[in-house]
């Protein structure tokens, strides 16, 4: 799915764009915790993983347009992600100087 879609976050919102249609399909507004980074979940293509201050948030943009499932992940801002599709995992990097691997 991520081959057909692009995801972007700003401090106040997250958006899923269709590459072929060139338009925004889904939008999520932050409920207070500013978004910093994102990546598609390698095992669930309809889930966007969003990094914020201390939290990793999962957004199922196909079914829950304005709801995330937050998980306490780091002690500071999650600044970036990288995914490992063949392993079904992602790594998060934070300003707390930790790298964590998630399945």
What are the salient characteristics of this protein?
103 residues, mainly beta, 5-stranded antiparallel sheet, 3-stranded antiparallel sheet, globular
Average pLDDT for all residues: 93
Q: Quote the distance from N terminus to C terminus.
A: 18 Å
Radius of gyration: 13 Å
Largest sheet: 5 strands, antiparallel
Could you name the ranges where pLDDT drops below 50 across 5 or more consecutive residues?
none
Strand order of the largest sheet: 4-5-6-7-8
Helical residue percent band: under 10%
| Helix-strand topology string | EEEEEEEE
Record field, number of beta strands: 8
Shape: globular
Structural class: mainly beta
What fraction strand?
over 45%
Helical run tally: 0
Topology:
Layout: E1 5-9, E2 13-18, E3 23-29, E4 35-40, E5 47-60, E6 69-84, E7 89-94, E8 99-102
Antiparallel strand pairs: 1-2, 2-3, 4-5, 5-6, 6-7, 7-8
Compact overview of the structure:
This protein has 103 residues and is an all-beta fold. The protein has strands at residues 5-9, 13-18, 23-29, 35-40, 47-60, 69-84, 89-94, 99-102. The protein is globular and about 40 Å long.
Characterization of the model:
With 103 residues, the protein is mainly β. It is built from no helices and 8 strands. The protein has strands spanning 5-9, 13-18, 23-29, 35-40, 47-60, 69-84, 89-94, 99-102. The chain has a 5-stranded antiparallel β-sheet with strand order 4-5-6-7-8, with no helix packed on it. The chain has a 3-stranded antiparallel β-sheet with strand order 1-2-3, with no helix packed on it. Strand 1 (5-9) and strand 2 (13-18) form a beta hairpin. The protein is globular, with a radius of gyration of 13 Å. The two termini are 18 Å apart. The relative contact order is 0.18. The mean pLDDT is 93. One of its GO terms (molecular function) is transcription corepressor activity. InterPro entries: LEUNIG-like, WD40/YVTN_repeat-like_dom_sf, WD40_repeat_dom_sf, WD40_rpt.
């Amino acid at each position: 799915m991520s081959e057909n879609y692009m995801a972007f976050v700003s401090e106040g919102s997250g958006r899923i764009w269709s590459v072929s249609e060139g338009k925004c399909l889904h939008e999520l507004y932050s409920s207070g915790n500013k978004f910093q980074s994102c990546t598609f979940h390698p095992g669930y293509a309809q889930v966007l993983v969003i990094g914020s201050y201390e939290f990793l948030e999962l957004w199922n943009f196909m079914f829950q347009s304005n709801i995330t499932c937050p998980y306490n992940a780091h002690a500071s801002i999650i600044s970036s992600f990288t995914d490992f599709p063949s392993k079904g995992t992602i790594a998060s990097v934070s300003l707390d100087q930790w790298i964590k691997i998630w399945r």
